[in-house]
């Protein structure tokens, strides 16, 4: 820094011209002392400048933050060959019409609490499998070994189009895990205009607490972004490959999940739903669609701005609702809330249901509540509302009634629902990894995942209510609502590992500078004080001598 160096390098003669030093005989000792003080001070500053130069590489790194770049479309396979060489075929058909989208209706089925699945055909000749629709992961994986929970599995050795990469894969979850190996094969969606692509497949050879008994699905179809792909993001997810091989398909999909009915004659609470590939079907929503921005493209992360119970805000800092993220996940059954938010929600709900013999284990999910007439819980359990960011100063509200967050379940003895009673589980649960807007919330809405514009849309579902005889709200989505604060600040901003590392370095460097500089400054201050006292004594002595000599 040239200016700084020139200021501190002022020669003594310039100080003399400025009057700071003078050549009066009586000031001879004072001039010498000040010159010594000045030289000493300059020496200390020079040492400090040297220290700064020594730390300059570290300080330069601290302010060098990486800039996230937009991913470019993949044009080559991992072995370097062109995509056209590795793909068996690329479909180029006319863009999907409304009739095409309508033909995809009711292509999902499932059981309450066990998720929604879709039929897929894998390999040559095709093997029909059922896979769970999961917007909270990015891998396409199917069982390829016998499992006692499964009725059948994928025989990759019987597919002439299957190609193994020899890469092993391990995917752990909060509860459960699976292992296997990676390969590629042709996958067709028979309920979606027979769309087909050669995709990465994880063949599951062993698992723990992953497959569910009687769930009727043998694999999982992850629809999240590439960043979640395992073992790394170089393995394109199913959705990305489908778009690459079907150039007319728009980068949009939408989901309508119709939950179980409390009024049914089946032995088990069956569910159905719709997965629309490549567009939006307006007839699946009773209301206009409200869109919230996708905050980060890994999970489908969004931003909550508030949570209300019976119209009253929980009153928490809005960052608490998004700690450490908020995602929309069709593969998770419940609405999962951070512990602090969950506790506040349960406390208010419990105050409304006093006298209903609801024990604490009901809220933990360990117990069920059974009713002969569901009008009782529907009349006492309050509406829970979630406010989602729409723009910097606006939000919209999703209302969840007891018809959706009290989940119908089978009798706990396993004999089916009792003839005169309906049993329910609490549809909220605590989370240690952020808010998850799971199937319980999605069943109340038609949800559009618009990856083209990086937004998620919500509309009031056209699915019949779980108990049509006891409608609670005519309208379950409303807005926009204005705010005088910047709602973007509700997002939880987690520093990445690189920024955290640079922050630690900066703290260490600052500590070292304090340790080195502070003693030097203290010594300089002590030395200056002594010098001033000595100068004053000498000045007093000179004046006394002058008085005596004058007399």
UniProtKB/TrEMBL annotation:
Give the protein family: Belongs to the peptidase A1 family.
Superkingdom to which the source organism belongs: Eukaryota
Q: Quick one: a GO biological-process term for this protein?
A: amyloid-beta metabolic process
- What is this protein identified as? Peptidase A1 domain-containing protein
- Mind naming one GO cellular-component term on file for this protein? endosome
Keywords (alphabetical) are:
Aspartyl protease, Hydrolase, Membrane, Protease, Signal, Transmembrane, Transmembrane helix, Zymogen
Record's bilayer topology term: Single-pass type I membrane protein
The residue stretches assigned to a coiled coil in this entry are none
- What residue intervals traverse the membrane? 38-55, 502-528
Domain spans labelled Peptidase A1: 116-459
Does Hydrolase show up as a keyword for this record? yes
Sorted alphabetically, which InterPro entries does this protein's record hold? Aspartic_peptidase_A1, Aspartic_peptidase_AS, BACE, BACE1, PEPTIDASE_A1, Peptidase_aspartic_dom_sf
């Amino acid at each position: 820094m040239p200016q700084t160096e020139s200021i501190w390098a002022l020669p003594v003669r310039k100080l003399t011209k400025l009057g700071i030093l003078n050549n009066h005989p009586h000031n001879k000792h004072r001039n010498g002392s000040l010159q010594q003080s000045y030289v000493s001070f300059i020496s200390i500053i020079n040492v400090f400048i040297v220290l700064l130069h020594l730390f300059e590489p570290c300080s330069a790194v601290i302010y060098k933050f990486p800039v996230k770049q937009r991913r470019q479309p993949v044009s080559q396979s991992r072995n370097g060959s062109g995509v056209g060489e590795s793909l068996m075929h690329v479909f180029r058909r006319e863009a999907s019409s409304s009739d095409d989208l309508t033909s995809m209706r009711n292509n999902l089925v499932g059981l309450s609490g066990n998720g929604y699945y879709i039929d897929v055909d894998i390999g040559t000749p095709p093997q029909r499998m059922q896979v769970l629709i999961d917007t909270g992961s990015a891998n396409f994986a199917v069982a390829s070994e016998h499992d006692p929970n499964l009725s059948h599995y994928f025989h990759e050795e019987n597919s002439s189009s299957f190609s193994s990469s020899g890469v092993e894969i391990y995917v752990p979850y909060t509860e459960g895990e699976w292992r296997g190996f990676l390969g590629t094969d042709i996958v067709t969606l028979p309920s979606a205009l027979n769309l087909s692509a050669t995709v990465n497949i994880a063949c599951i050879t062993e698992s723990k607490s992953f497959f569910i008994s009687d769930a009727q699905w043998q694999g999982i179809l992850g629809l999240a972004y590439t960043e979640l792909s395992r073992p790394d993001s170089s393995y394109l997810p199913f959705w990305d490959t489908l778009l690459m091989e079907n150039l007319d398909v728009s980068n949009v999909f939408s989901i309508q999940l119709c939950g179980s009915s409390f009024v049914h004659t089946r032995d088990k609470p069956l569910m159905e739903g719709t997965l629309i590939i490549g567009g939006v079907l307006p007839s699946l929503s009773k209301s206009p669609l409200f869109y919230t921005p996708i905050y980060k493209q890994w999970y489908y992360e969004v931003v909550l701005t508030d949570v209300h119970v019976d119209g009253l805000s929980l009153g928490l800092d809005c960052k608490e609702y998004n700690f450490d993220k908020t995602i929309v996940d069709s593969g998770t059954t419940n609405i999962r809330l951070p512990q602090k938010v969950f506790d506040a929600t349960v406390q208010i709900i419990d105050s409304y249901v006093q006298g209903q013999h609801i024990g604490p284990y009901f809220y933990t999910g360990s117990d069920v509540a059974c009713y002969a007439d569901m009008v009782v819980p529907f009349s006492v359990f309050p509406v829970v509302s979630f406010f989602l960011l729409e723009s910097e100063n606006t939000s919209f509200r999703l209302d969840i009634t007891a018809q959706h967050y009290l989940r119908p379940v089978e009798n706990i003895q396993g004999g089916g629902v009792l003839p005169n009673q309906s049993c329910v589980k609490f549809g909220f649960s605590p989370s240690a990894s952020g808010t998850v807007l799971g199937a319980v919330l999605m069943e109340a809405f038609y949800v559009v995942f618009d990856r083209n514009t990086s937004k998620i849309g919500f509309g009031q579902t056209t699915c019949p209510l779980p108990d049509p005889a006891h409608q609670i709200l005519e309208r379950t989505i409303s807005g926009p609502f204005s705010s005088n604060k910047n709602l973007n600040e509700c997002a939880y901003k987690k520093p990445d590992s690189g920024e955290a590392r640079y922050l630690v370095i900066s703290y260490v460097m600052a500590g070292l500078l304090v340790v080195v500089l502070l003693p030097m400054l203290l010594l300089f201050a002590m030395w200056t004080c002594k010098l001033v006292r000595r100068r004053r004594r000498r000045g007093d002595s000179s004046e006394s001598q002058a008085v005596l000599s004058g007399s």
